[in-house]
Design goal:
The protein has about 280 residues and is mostly helical. It has 13 helices and no strands.
Length: about 280
Amino acid sequence: MKKIPSRERLKKAVKADPLMVSFSFLALLLLLFVFLTLSYMIIVQVTSDFPGLIAATKNESVIKSINLSMYAGLLATVASFLVGVPAAYILARKEFFGKHVVESVLDIPVVVPHTVAGIALLTIFGSRGLLGGPLESYIQFRDALPGIVIAMLFVSAPFLTNSAREGFQNIDPRIENAARSLGAPLWKTFLLITLPIASRHLLIGSIMCWARAISEFGAVVMIAYYPMVGPTLIYERFISYGLSESRPIAVLLILVTLTIFIAVRLLSAGWRIYDTD
């Protein structure tokens, strides 16, 4: 009798395993839930009011709000990268008193209601706030681009920081120590060794950070209702005119962000530099 290779037996066992079948079914439910929720809205808009969608693409205020969302989200992502990557590296490499407290504090924006985050930001960066008051002559946060970026930064930074920390933790410190033993300073080791190895985690964290930033509404609307970003404009149109006026903008925002998101995913799909499996 021909002996079946162990790998083939494993594949058959996995396919026939009741647990894998159950998990596949549950995963399918999740996929259908997300896909149907978004796709049905797009289908309804296209089939019932396609001219409304075309009109939204030509509306100056709609295009400005979506562009502002993208731009402010990009600024928030860059700021998150500049402050989040160093913090992630320290948390991944160093043990110190109160480390768990620091990690918890950095994760708080994920669990805090975003209207609460907006009020807290307004207390700090408002015209009479702790920092907003003294800085008002130089930079304005209330109803201005800096306020939008600050709100987006607050809610989205944990996504990049946590992804970067995971990437750094997966790197064997002996690799860095080998570079240091050959005379490379710490900054050079970090730039030429550590960052390239963790690049996939950094990219994924940046994508998630950007996506979370442009979708933020609660914190943004509290500190900077104007100028309107995409989610704020959608809310304003829904309150004022109802679903018929807000849905085309929502569909357009989904299509634009989804296109960019898929494009970035495809560009990074084959990224395996320094990857260890």
